[in-house]
Amino acid sequence: MTVLVEIQDRIALVTLDRPDKLNALNFATIDRLLDLLDAFEVDDRIGAVILTGAGDRAFSAGADIAEFAVSVRAGSAVALRDFVRRGQSLTARLEAFPKPVIAAVNGLAFGGGCEITEAVHLAVASERALFAKPEIQLGMVPTFGGTQRLPRLAGRKRALELLLTGDPFTPEHALELGLVNQVVPHGELLPSARHLATRILRHEPSAIAGAIAAVTRGLNASIAEGLQIEAEQFARLAPTRTLADGLAGWLARKEISASRSATCHPAG
Ligand code: COA
Predict the structure, then answer these.
(1) Which of 25, 82, 84, 212 is 20 to 30 A from 248 in CA distance terms?
(2) Is residue 40 in contact with ligand 1, taking CB distance under 6 Å?
């Protein structure tokens, strides 16, 4: 088994489990992740997903070079089908997943490991994490969305510097780029990711899904289309009982605090 799953407190902890290969993403691992996401989407026991890597060295060293080299030797059509489309499907699925996905980057996040971090909704990095876009050293471009999402996150010139040099970069630099949300001591990595998930899980799943959909789809649209997407997400939530209860609860709390302060400070 290349991926481990543990469910606790409505959080699915998914661990890439090929530590002897630095959790390189072979086809079986990608297919397993896609199957798991299909299952998680319809499982009401799961509200959020945390993705991490097994072992003490890597989150993931990227696509499995030994495996995809075979596809490349078989020609572009095979490589596009077996390798590129498969990897792009994974990162697109993570990006648009309706429940929050948080990367807990425990070590090396090279190539596809970095692209997963770019695609997920939120990321926490250990102080021991190290990122890189090393594909240029192999004579290729990133193929799991890495030429598209990093420039959107970090800006064109900062992304191109990393894509064109292939140089590794620190978790602190990843934080500056907006690639991760937090950098934490190694021992606090999973607790921090869980804490982040728990803060989100206080809220209504449909509102969470609406915010993710509006941001993800809107980022790749014009501002006018993005505003339309936002309005559609609101329209989907407007008739729900949850929103009616949320608004009524807030108004009732205001009324109580207003009547309390009127009692404490009687006019005149
Ligand atoms: N694909 C397949 N196997 C990989 C891999 C990858 N992306 N990254 C590491 N491995 C394997 C190594 O082959 C080695 O396995 P082996 O002992 O059976 O030969 C094992 O993981 C440990 O890696 P190793 O290279 O010995 O570790 P290192 O500390 O010397 O170097 C890296 C670490 C990350 C610098 C190096 O493994 C590397 O360059 N990996 C490829 C990164 C990359 O280009 N990713 C993008 C692919 S498109």
Answers:
(1) 212
(2) no
Phi and psi (nearest 5°) for 135? -55, -35
CA of 64 to the centre of ligand 1 (A): 8
> pLDDT value at position 1?
77
- Say if strands 108-110 and 58-60 run parallel, antiparallel, or are unpaired: parallel
Q: CA distances (Å), 241 to each of 42, 209, 236, in order?
A: 21, 16, 12
The SS3 assignment for 167 reads coil
Percent of the chain whose pLDDT exceeds 90 = 88
Q: List beta partners, residue 105.
A: 125
164 lines ligand 1 (CB under 6 A): no
Decide: 61 in ligand 1 pocket, CB within 6 A: yes
Catalytic residue numbers, as ranges: 115, 135
Rounded distance from Cα 22 to ligand 1 centre (Å): 6
Mean pLDDT of the chain: 95
Q: Outline where 120-240 has alpha helix (H).
A: 135-138, 149-154, 156-165, 171-177, 189-201, 205-219, 223-237
Answer whether 144's CB lies under 8 Å from 94's CB.
Answer: no
Nearest CA to ligand 1 atom 15: 21
Name the percent of the chain lying above pLDDT 70.
99
Q: Is the pLDDT of residue 6 over 80?
A: yes
Ligand 1 atom with minimal separation from the 138 CA: 44
Tens digits of per-residue pLDDT, 60-74? 999 999 999 999 999
Q: Which of 17, 22, 133 to mutate to test the pocket of ligand 1 (most atoms within 8 A of CB)?
A: 22
